[in-house]
Structure formats: structure tokens, C-alpha cells
Amino acid sequence: MHIMKYGFATVAAAIPSVKVADTHFNILAIEEMVAKAEGRGAEIIVFPELSITGYSCQDLFRSHLLLEKAEEALVHLLDFTRKLNIISVVGMPVAVGGTLLNCAVVVQQGSVIGIVPKTFLPNYGEFYEKRWFVSALDINCQQIYIAGNPVVVSSEPQVFVTANGLKFGVEICEDLWSPIPPSNNLALAGADVIVNLSASDELIGKHDYLRQLISQQSARTISAYVYSSCGFGESTQDVVYGGNAIIAENGRMIAESERFSKDPQLQIAQIDVELLRSERRANTTFTMAQRTGHAKLVETRPTEMRDFVLLRDIDPLPFIPKSADMKRSCEEILNIQTSGLAKRLKHTACKHVVVGISGGLDSTLALLVCVRAFDYLGLDRKGIHGITMPGFGTTDRTHDNAVSLMQSLGISVDEISIVKSVTQHFLDIGHDIGNHDVTYENGQARERTQILMDMANRVGGMVVGTGDLSELALGWATYNGDHMSMYGVNASIPKTLIRHLVRYVADYDVDESSRATLLDIIDTPISPELIPADADGNISQKTEDLVGPYELHDFFLYYYLRFGYRPAKLFVMASAAFNGHNPSVGQYDDATIKHWLSTFFRRFFSQQFKRSCLPDGPKVGSVSLSPRGDWRMPSDASCQLWLDEIACL
Asked: Whole-angstrom Cα distance, residue 476 to residue 468?
């Protein structure tokens, strides 16, 4: 058995042309879509309920001729698929002794791999399936021959296992709408993907409910859900079938067909099975519930490996809310930060905070959160002590922006130069001030932190930290310098998100003077300003020139922490995400991505000791590096396995 390439599996949901009770027409339409899906690399394709006969045959299901022709059509499909690797899941009526079942038939390489009968039969409104069919719960286990294939038919749950290790289960239409869908058990028994053969009619408001149902079921079972419902061509005697091919992954819709189309439709999507399994392992509720899952494992046919092609659209900025949700999401993030700080102030009966204001994005966001927290608690903004501490590398632009912002926000403003004290410190320890090494840089950072801590003691307040999630991941913080505070409001905010949050405040939450300053801060290059400015007084030390683009590092950070992806997969995904087709992000060639991927893992592993002693701070999103609840890693772990894989890319 070979494994899925990079953990991806390609699936398809099809809505073929259909003529009610014309099995020959229907099977040709099905085969046409099977061929298309096979050509596009799909491993599984699912068709609508009773797709071989058409769903709306009604009492024609009692016709021996229709049942016989349905089986002949299946023989035709078996012959058609004899040399195809793709697994096809089609719907048809299956006679078992004196009963008739509404079934999904799993076909691959000319064989019937298995049959799954429908469990819950609707018998209300326009649907009276119990008039023709019996439930899987009402049959005894028995072997039948269908299209020359011996197959066991029973109510026992089945999980199908493909040659590359993908596991999928099958349910049919109403099964999903039941109080306890069969897919609950199938997922707990190991199914990564649930396929649903359906025939759902269109009613006002029903489609929205259906989408919610599919989304929620895929989220609840932490699975991919592939749904196909019949469309144009079914009988419209009493109801209309709009045609829905929907693919969801862990609550997120990743592919949907056009409703009410008269043409056949094929939706293909890549499922990230590795993501699903990672989420399941991390979800203790799911792992505990797995003890109740049970199913018979059915192996499909062995297949040949194909060249891998990534079909998914990869979000290059996974931390950034989508534009439609941007305003609401930014407000929610700021509220979480504000509430966390407000609670800490309330708990400690503290009415003063001290913040180092550099004129950069991180300290700006921390200051804005402090202002919101003080307003929320009804405290005087003068209790916020903003301190700008110009040093050897401070430019006029950042200094003036820091002072201007503090003044326009109405907080207490202090300016304390560190030049004299750091110069004396270098003399004390015997360091050449002309040597701009790590001692030169960190000496300034630690002097600033000492000032902040001592000022906090003097005013009876606490130091609010400004460092962000991206800096913590890369260790881009001076140990016991800007690394330390009494409460770090930005601890789970990545660098790529901070710019959006500051922009949101500028647009909706401050006066015009503050807005102008914030917009200039947003446009200022990211820099610690620890090295003297250039001859023109501009920033000479740009962080991203040293550690790499934050949009790349945040991309690596999200997918590594959230799902534990290996470097090879991160590389493939980053290459697709930053390949030049998205104007909102930088474009990086493979060599550049590989270089910074190596930097990310090398720094991430070597800098864990800084994260092991982080100050408290509010968790905002699904990714955090708090050593208390989210990321527990030994400070001495080796990154060699990760670097070795990167070297082989």
C-alpha cells in the first residue's frame, strides 16, 4: 500500500444527465463523467441517489424489467471501468430475496467492491420510499450475486480503504437528516471522507439549511463530505430537483455546483486528509468518542501511483480574515485583547500601565489595546504611560510618529533617551561601541526593558508587552529584553495580521489626527532600529531582510503549528500560494521559499527556550505558542530531521 502524496486525496461529486427509467441513457451519462473525473486525477467519484434508474421512478421500482435493466447497466459500468483506477459510487435499486433496497454500489476496476443500503427512508411529504424499499436495519446479512459479483449485503457499517490508505464511508440522502446519521459512526470508525448519494428536492429556504447541515456534519465528524444530489432530468411531477454537488472539509465548503443547471456538472476538489487526521488527533473529544465507532473494513483494488498535481487553492495569508469578514473579525480580535488586559487590570486593581512606544506596528497595536481597555473600564487615559526611548538607530520618522500618536490619544507621554546609559554600559562591560554586533543590539533592548519595568514600579503599574506571535516563533526578541513584560497583549497576533488590525482602528475607531499617524506607521518598514540610520536618516536595518518575509514565515507557522505539516508539504503549498498569481502577496521562487523554510525551522527549534518562559497573554486564534496551554516543546529538541528533508527538496 502506498500513501497519499503530501496527504492529499482528490474526490469528485457528479450530477449527470438523467432520463427517468432509461437505464441505458443514464449509464452512458455516468460513464462519461467517470472518464472525465479519472482524467482529472479523481480517486473517488460519487453520483446521485438511484442514479442508474433515476430517483423519481415511483411504482416503476416494482417492475422486474427496470430492476433487470439496472443490473445490466451496472454490468456495462463494470466493463467500462475495468482498466480504471477511480472508485465510482453509484445508486441503484438492489433486490435481495423478497425485499428491495435503495443502495449505493461501490465499483472499481470492473468489480463491485461493496454495497451500502440506505438506513433511513423518508415516508412523509412527497417522499414515500417505504412503499418500495426497506431499510438496511430490516434485512438479514446475506450474500447475493449482482452483475456476476458475489457481494455481502447487510446493515453492518462499512469503511472502504483505498490502496493509498484513504478511508471513506457511504450514507444516502435522508441518512444525513436523521438524528443520528450513519456518518457519525463511520467517522468514529476511521472514515476520512463521507460520500452521500442524494435526491433532495428544492423548497424555499431548504438549500441554505442543506448547506449548513453538510458543513456542520463535516465539522462535527472532522471529515470531508462529498455530496451529490440529482438535478435536471428527474421528474417534475410534484417537486423539482435543482442538482447539488457539494464538497466540504471540516466545516468549510471547498466546491459547489451551480443549482438548476440543465447541463451535467462535475465538481472536483482535493481533500487534505492529513489535515483531518491531525485535527482528530488533537481533538480529545473525538478521540474519546472513537471507542464507540465500529465498522467492517473493505479494501479496494490496488492502483498505480500518479504524478502529483496540487489542485487546491492555497491561502497565502491563513491568519488574515477574508474581506467579507474583515471588519467583524478585527473587532472581535481587538475585543479579546481588550478584555484580557481589562481583566488583568481589574484583578490587580491596577490603574496604570507602561508601554514602550517605538513608532512601529507592534507597540502601536499594544497602545491601541491599552486605550480600549482603559475606556472599557472607565479609567483615565493618563494612566497609560507611553514611553519613547530613542537610541542609536531611532529615525525621525518613527520618533515623531510615536510622540504624535501618544499625544493625539491623550495618554501620558515620556521620552527617555537610552544613548547615554547604554554608552556607559558598554564602557562598563568593555564593549566597543563601534562594533554593531548582538551585544550592541541587545544592550539597547535590555536597557529599554529596564526603564519600562522601573517606571512601572514608580507609577504602581504594569508593563504591557508588545511582542507578537511571529517574533516568538522566530525568536526575534531579546531574551529578558523586549521578550519580557507583565502581560503580552500581542502574544498570539502574527505580524501579517497586525497591519490589518491597526488599519481597522485607523478607519473606524480614532480621530483624524491619530488616523494620519497610524497610516504612516503602517507604511513604515518593519525594523528594531538598533543599528544607526543611513546617511539620509532612513531606517538601515530592515527585519525582513534579516529573517525573511513575514508572510512566508506566518504561512509556515500556521500550517506547521495547526496541522504539523512536514517541510516537503509546506514547500509544495507555499510554491502554489506564492507563485505570482496573487497580487496581494509577494512572489517567491522555489529557491527563495526553500531558503526561508530552512531559516524558519532552524530558528523555531533553537529559540524555544524563549517561549518556555513567556508572560501571560490572551489567546486570540487557533494558533498560539503559550507554553502553558498550546505549545509544549523541549528547548533542546533537534531540528535535524526537518532540515534534512528541506535539503532534499
From this structure: 10
